[in-house]
Fold:
Amino acid sequence: MTLTVQLAGGARVQRTRALPAPSAHTDDLRTATFRSLDSMAFERARIRRLTLSADDLRPVSSSRARERSRDAGARKGRSPLLRIQLA
Structure:
């Protein structure tokens, strides 16, 4: 996935990150996105636009990913979502 951040002055910052394992789950993509944004270490930046694009997509039939449980208790064991405050 590639995250592009456009700042108020028109500058753009881009980070590319691969997911640790094949996934079709929003939580995994959200966590990777927030980690990429956090790695940019913006302080009081005036962010105008966030663009997320997925790269190297593959059909489900070609992956070895396992389906996760929808049980709320199972979700508690996964890593928590990072919280980022944008000013």
User: Anything to note?
Assistant: Residues 81-87 have pLDDT under 50 and may be disordered. The chain has two helices and three strands. The radius of gyration is 15 Å. The beta strands are 2-7, 12-16, 47-53.
